[in-house]
């Protein structure tokens, strides 16, 4: 990327308000950072509220037994996350080729949010697990299209030496989205509202970002057609040719497995192990997320700013992973609800630092600056894939754990801790970034 003088940047933007391809301003445009943070907050509010709270109870309401609910929840979340895995890199590559007069990213951001809203409404009224499954796949596809296009604007709009700060602020949108969703569902008593209200908020925030974004615009279609080979190429890269990118992907996958991949079953953990009713469990999740967000609010910005100033990314990722492992171990052996809340705070402390530095690190190891959105989409597979694999294997791990002295959920959380620990160690295989 080339830093431009103010005059050159103005020339690149031109009278249309859109940036020319291949240019990066000397600083982020006014309104860009709050806009990017807002759209990420909206996506995570809408997506993670079902993942962490409302989907478990929706499935419970339309199934007969707790065992059936666990199995069906794993099915819905696993298959839905697979669609997220496909959508993110595919839309990233398509947005790199989009020649709309509205820019490369904006049509995907707004269109995806509106399609997702329809999917949320369908889940809200569904009385069958299969309807929920189909609608959730639609939601995951559409929302990950929004994420792919929105986060691809970071290297478009922000110079390298400012990305840690932006990444740190954007990283806070995940816990804020979780907290906002946990807060909302405390006041929404029916399934329809629990899904649609967050979806409406996400659509409104996507619209606001679209209005402030001075998007890149391609004047001409790329000479090379989008082929079947390119389609499959949207999901792969050559780790031998780009080893740092490969290790970054693997680190992200392992740490996110420990953080996001195992979180879906917390409502069942609270109701089955501690005997909480649905409303009490929802209130407990809110308190736990408040503790987690408070910890993230401390570690997130500090991690991003310090990594910029010190010029190092890897130590922050490694330390963050170890802290998250400690929190998962505490959660696994929690003797009371109070300890569950403490464990969530510890996990949040580590996750804040990880998320604040992870995106900045990723932008420094991208293989091809002309395929930025595609490559970021491949990295985002590491976010989506744990959310597919973990729920799919969770019933088997929980069932096996139930036959041991540890218990089902204790075994599951310890497994997540081991996976996250591997990610914390492997970050030092990345050689091109300090």
Automatic annotation (TrEMBL):
Any one cellular-component term (Gene Ontology): plasma membrane
Q: How does it sit in the membrane?
A: Multi-pass membrane protein
For this UniProt entry, the molecular function terms from Gene Ontology, in alphabetical order, are: transmembrane transporter activity
Q: Which UniProt keywords apply?
A: Membrane, Transmembrane, Transmembrane helix
InterPro entries attached to this UniProt entry: MFS (IPR011701), MFS_dom (IPR020846), MFS_trans_sf (IPR036259)
Q: Spell out the Pfam families in the cross-references.
A: MFS_1
Tell me which residues make up the Major facilitator superfamily (MFS) profile domain: 35-434
User: What is the protein's name according to its record?
Assistant: Multidrug resistance protein MdtG
Record field: transmembrane = 36-57, 69-87, 108-127, 133-154, 166-189, 195-213, 249-270, 282-304, 316-334, 340-363, 384-406, 412-430
Q: Report whether Plastid shows up as a keyword of the record.
A: no
Q: Which PROSITE patterns match?
A: MFS
Q: Where in the cell is it found?
A: Cell membrane
Q: What is the lineage of its organism?
A: Bacteria, Bacillati, Actinomycetota, Actinomycetes, Micrococcales
